[in-house]
Every structure is written in C-alpha cells, then in structure tokens.
Amino acid sequence: MTSPSYRLFTTFMLCTMCTIVACGPSGITLSGTVDIDGTPVEKGKLSLVPKSGVDSPTAMTPIINGQFTVPPTSQLREGQFDVRVVVTADRAPKTELTFLQPNNKAAMGTALSQALKDAPPAEESFTMDLDVSGSTEELTLSFIR
C-alpha cells in the first residue's frame, strides 16, 4: 500500500508534466494565397527561411490551388524571413513507348524532338522578404514574372 504523501507527490508530478506538454511552445499559423501575375499557383512549395538573428526554424508547406497553410506545429516564430516559392509542373504520363532500331538516325531525331515537346516546363522559383509578426489567416503573396 502506498502512503498518502507518495500518491500526492505522484499526482502533482503527473499534473505538472501534463501542463508542460499541453502548454508547451507552439508556433505561429500562417495561411493564405500565392499568385503569379494574378493567377493562383496550381501546385508548388512555399519555404520560410529565417533571416540572420531570427530564432525560428525554416518552415515548408505545399501550395495547392493557390492555397497554403503553415501550421503551429512548424514552430514558426516572429521575425523576418526569405519567402521562397517553387512552382512545380506535373509531368503528363507517357501514353506510349518508343522503340528505336539501331542506326536509325531519322527515327532517333523524331523521338528526341517529341520528347522535348512532351517535357514539362522548367520549375520556376520566386523570392520575397516577409516580416512575420503574429498569426495571419489571409496572407496574400503576389509575384510578377
């Protein structure tokens, strides 16, 4: 059988640990839209890289249909950041395979030309400075080509 003081101590420690875990540090929430020349970014990645002297980790989140959210679990803190947006393009699945006969330069030229046409556009990246001073739910990041 345990003593009342031991049970009281155990209960106190358990409550203290729950309070520390529940009230632990949480980050800032940022959400909003990203557009380029007024058109929402269909698919991409947003990174917030802290500038020198800012006590915050780098936060990264996907951009889908122009929308992004940096959740509080990212531990983002207030400060100045470099915002980096990378726009990605989906590669259309190849519907047919091309087989070439050895020493057939004409077929190789045709296949190479078609492969270049089928290639997705290169990824584009954009950067800007951002001063984060608290949670924001309607942030609009606009870039111009």
Largest sheet: 4 strands, mixed
Number of helices, counting only DSSP H or I runs of 4 residues or more: 2
Following the backbone from N to C, one meets helices and strands in this order, namely HEEEEEEHEE
Gyration radius from CA atoms, angstroms? 26 Å
Estimated structural class: alpha+beta
Distance, first to last CA: 74 Å
Give the domain tally: 1
Helix content: 10-25%
The averaged pLDDT comes out at 81
Judging by the overall fold, what is the CATH architecture? Sandwich
CATH class call:
Mainly Beta
Unreliable parts: 18-22
CATH fold call: Immunoglobulin-like
Q: Looking at this structure, what is the CATH superfamily?
A: Immunoglobulins
User: How many extended strands?
Assistant: 8
Q: What does the overall shape look like?
A: elongated
Strand % is 35-45%
Structure write-up:
- The chain has one domain (4-143): Immunoglobulin-like.
- The longest helix is centred in the N-terminal third of the chain and has 19 residues, at 4-22.
- The strands form 2 sheets. Strands 1, 2, 5 and 8 form a 4-stranded mixed β-sheet that branches. Strands 4-3-6-7 form a 4-stranded antiparallel β-sheet, with no helix packed on it.
- Helices cover 23% and strands 37% of the residues.
- The termini are far apart.
- The chain is elongated, with a radius of gyration of 26 Å.
- By secondary structure, it is of the alpha+beta class.
- It has helices at 4-22, 105-118; strands spanning 30-36, 39-40, 43-50, 59-64, 67-70, 79-87, 124-132, 136-143.
